[in-house]
Specification:
The chain is an alpha/beta fold. It has 12 helices and 12 strands. It folds into 2 domains: 243 residues, 3-Layer(aba) Sandwich (Aspartate Aminotransferase, domain 2), CATH 3.40.640.10; 123 residues, Aspartate Aminotransferase, domain 1 (Alpha-Beta Complex), CATH 3.90.1150. Strand 2, helix 5 and strand 3 form a beta-alpha-beta unit. The structure holds pyridoxal-5'-phosphate.
C-alpha cells in the first residue's frame, strides 16, 4: 500500500468541474488581480473566522510581513537606532522569523511547551526589552497557542500581538477562532494547508478597522489614492485565480476538518497505552484543525526510514529549530538554549492525516508505526 503524506488529487476530483468553470470565467474576463473573486473571498473568510476585516494577500509569509508593517514594525534605512524586537517561538516554520528579519526587526526566540509545541507563554516576560514591539505566537499544527496569557502579557507591556495562523484557519480556543486574539492574524493558502489554493496565497484577518485600512494600502505599495504613497508597502496582492479556487473549496473546509479530527481520533486510540509514542496533546478548550498529526518517538530517524520504506509518506516539521539556523548565527544563540524546541526537532514526525484517508490506510499506518518502534 502506498500512502502519501497528503493527497490533493482526491480532494480535487469532485471539485474539478466547478474549479475549471471559475478559471475559465477569469480567463474570459482577463481580470487577474483583485476584483470580485478576491472581495468575495475576503468577505467569506472574515465571516468564517468571525472577524470584521480580511485582506487577501500573495502568501502567508506576505501576510506576516504586511501585518508587521501594519503594526509599525518596519525599519527605515535611515534609522540608526538598535533594531526593534519581536518575540516568537524557536520551533515553527521559518517564515515566522524570516518575516520579522525582513522587516528589519530582530527575532527574539522563546522555547515551546513540550506538549503542545506552541510558545511557552511563561517565557515571554523575561524576553521583553525597551525595544520589544510585538509577540508573534504561532498556532502550530492547527492548535491555538495560550492566547489569554500571551494577550495579558502583551497588554501590560504595550506590545502588539500578531498571530501566525498559517496552519490554523478556523481553529478555536474556548469557542473563539484564530484571528480574534491578537491585533491581527496571518493565514496561508499554501496548497498543503487545510484550505489550500492553486498556488500561493494568504490573508490578514483583523477586528481593527484602522489597521485593516493600513494593511490594505500596504498590500499595494502603500498606495492610496493611485500613485500617492503614504507608506512603503509591497506588491502583496492576491490573484483572482487563487481567490476563485479557494471559494470553491471553502464550503468544504469544516467537513474536511471533521474528517481530519476523526483520523486523529483513530491514531490517538490506536497509540494510547504505547509508552514510546507521544501523541498530540490538545490543550483544554482548544479545537485543533489538525493541519498536521505529529507524534514523538525515541527513535525518530529510524522510524522515518522504516515508514518511508513501507511507502508511507511522513515528514519532519521541523528538523532544525530557528535559533540554530545558519542565517541567524549572528543572533548568538547556541545548542541548549531551548531544550524543548531542540527535543521536538529531534524526536517528532508527522503522519498522514488528510481527510480522505480510509480506515484500511489508517490501520496500515498504525501497524507500521508499531513495527517501526523496535528499530534503532
Ligand atoms: C506555511 C506557513 C507560513 C507561510 O505561509 P506561505 O503561504 O507558505 O508563505 C508561515 N508560518 C507558518 C507557521 C506556516 O506553516
Amino acid at each position: 500500500m502506498k500512502i502519501p503524506l497528503l493527497d490533493l488529487k482526491i480532494q480535487y476530483a469532485p471539485l474539478r468541474e466547478e474549479t475549471q468553470r471559475v478559471i475559465n470565467d477569469i480567463l474570459d474576463d482577463q481580470h487577474f488581480i483583485g476584483g470580485r473573486y478576491v472581495s468575495e473571498l475576503e468577505e467569506k473568510i472574515a465571516e468564517y473566522s468571525g472577524v470584521a476585516h480580511a485582506i487577501g494577500v500573495s502568501s502567508g509569509t506576505d501576510a506576516l510581513i504586511a501585518s508587521l508593517m501594519g503594526c509599525g514594525i518596519f525599519r527605515s534605512p535611515l534609522d540608526n537606532s538598535p533594531a526593534l524586537e519581536v518575540i516568537l517561538p524557536a520551533y515553527t516554520f521559518f517564515a515566522t522569523a524570516g518575516s520579522v528579519w525582513r522587516c528589519g526587526a530582530k527575532p527574539v526566540f522563546a522555547d515551546i511547551d513540550p506538549d503542545t509545541y506552541n510558545i511557552d507563554a511563561s517565557q515571554i516576560s523575561s524576553k521583553i526589552t525597551g525595544r520589544t514591539r510585538a509577540v508573534m505566537p504561532v498556532h502550530l499544527f492547527g492548535q491555538c497557542a495560550e492566547m489569554e496569557k500571551i494577550s495579558a502579557i502583551a497588554e501590560s507591556n504595550g506590545l502588539a500581538v500578531i498571530e501566525d495562523g498559517a496552519q490554523a484557519i478556523g481553529a478555536s480556543r474556548r469557542g473563539v477562532k484564530v484571528g480574534n486574539f491578537g491585533n491581527c492574524a496571518a493565514l496561508s493558502f499554501f496548497p498543503s494547508k487545510n484550505l489550500g489554493g492553486l498556488g500561493d496565497g494568504g490573508m490578514v484577518i483583523t477586528n481593527d478597522g484602522e489597521l485593516a485600512v493600513k494593511i490594505r494600502e500596504i498590500r499595494n505599495h502603500g498606495m492610496e489614492p493611485k500613485y500617492y504613497h503614504r507608506h512603503v508597502g509591497g506588491n502583496f496582492r492576491l490573484d483572482a485565480l487563487q481567490a476563485a479556487g479557494l471559494l470553491v473549496k471553502l464550503p468544504h473546509l469544516d467537513s474536511w476538518g471533521a474528517m481530519r479530527a476523526n483520523n486523529a481520533a483513530v491514531y490517538d486510540e490506536a497509540f494510547s497505552g504505547i509508552e514510546e509514542i507521544k501523541t498530540p496533546l490538545i490543550a483544554d478548550g482548544n479545537k485543533s484543525i489538525y493541519n498536521q498529526y505529529v507524534i514523538s518517538v525515541p527513535n525518530r530517524d529510524a522510524m522515518l526510514a522504516h515508514l518511508r520504506g513501507k511507502d508511507i509518506g511522513c515528514e519532519v516539521y521541523y528538523p532544525v529549530p530557528l535559533h540554530l539556523q545558519e542565517c541567524f548565527a549572528e543572533l548568538g544563540y547556541k545548542k541548549g538554549d531551548f531544550p524543548n524546541a531542540e527535543y521536538a526537532a529531534e524526536h517528532t514526525l508527522a503522519l498522514p492525516i488528510y481527510p480522505e484517508l480510509t480506515r484500511e490506510q489508517l490501520d496500515y499506518i498504525v501497524a507500521e508505526v508499531k513495527n517501526g518502534l523496535v528499530k534503532r
